[in-house]
Hints:
Layout: H1 6-22, H2 50-63, H3 71-79, H4 85-99, H5 106-109, H6 111-122, H7 127-137, H8 146-160, H9 164-173, H10 177-186, H11 192-222, H12 227-272, H13 292-295, H14 304-312, H15 339-352
Helix pairs in contact: 1-4, 7-8, 9-11
Amino acid sequence: MSAPPPESTLARSLELLASKIAAIPDNPKPSSSVKTRVPDVFDGSDPNKLETFTFQCSMYLASCKRNFPNNESCVTFVLSYLKGNPLDWFQNEINHALNNGGKFPEWFESYPVFIAELQRLFSPRDPIMDATNALETLKYKDSTKATRYTLDFNRHSRRTGWNKAALTRQFYKGLPDRIKDEIAQIGKPATLLELQDLVSTLDQRYWERQSEISRDKRSTTNQPTSNTNKASSSNNRSDNRSNNRTNNQNSSGAKTGNNQNNNVHSKNKDQKKPTPPANTPSSSSGTKPNSIADMLGPDGKLKPEERQRRLDNNLCLRCAKFGHTVPNCPIQSKAKPKGRAATVAAALNVAAAPATGTASGCSGKA
């Protein structure tokens, strides 16, 4: 007799599971007022989660006994929360039973046998060694709390088979230094339970103190500025403005003093420099200067009074202007003058010749 095709077997297994699940009410009402949480889905990727999964399933089934009248309904309920490798394994077992006359395995009709089979297949391979390694590497992290450390320690310690003294020593070894320092001042308890209670108390006090420090910091940071601080800030701004005005005044005074010194220096320089008389030809007075013919005598030379006036006032004997001598006079005869102009130029040269070194303000040879 040939075996039925796989499609037919799968359809029959699904039909069987569907009928079992259909027997479970859609909205099962628990037997008590406590609302039980449904179990998490188990996919077999982490064997350490199997214990938590079986515990959640047992708690839910116990709280809803009326909805699960027999073992088959309990097994079917747990199968509905499996996926991945665990679901594939049990599905293949059901398919095999359907292909062999519908004789199902023992675990399908007994919930305890089903849980044992589930643990045999997907629980840790060496739970004692795994628990020992986990206990030896377990550390109380300073950022966590004592409750978490104690729970993890107790969960692994029950599988190791260690005695109470070894467990107490290992529990103390994993504590942080801040708790060990306080235990050193108080004294180490003799039993594991007393040590765990003391650690819980010390840890609670530590985190309460940390909360107080955080609140104090927040209150200090968020505290509004007091009137004293405002007045101090106002005084500081006033002082800064006063200092700025003082600096500006000092700067202005320094500039004014420099300007005054410059003006005085300029005035002194101007005073040292003699001013030509108003009746000279170079003066800025409104009188019309005399012509060259009026300055010359009958002999064609400068008149004595004109010559003496130029010498006294440091005037050029040629052009009668202030500030230079005859050799530096800008008026030079480029061409030989003719007529009356030649006579006047010659007279000027002759008149200037005897003035060499006689004037106090002229230097050089005129």
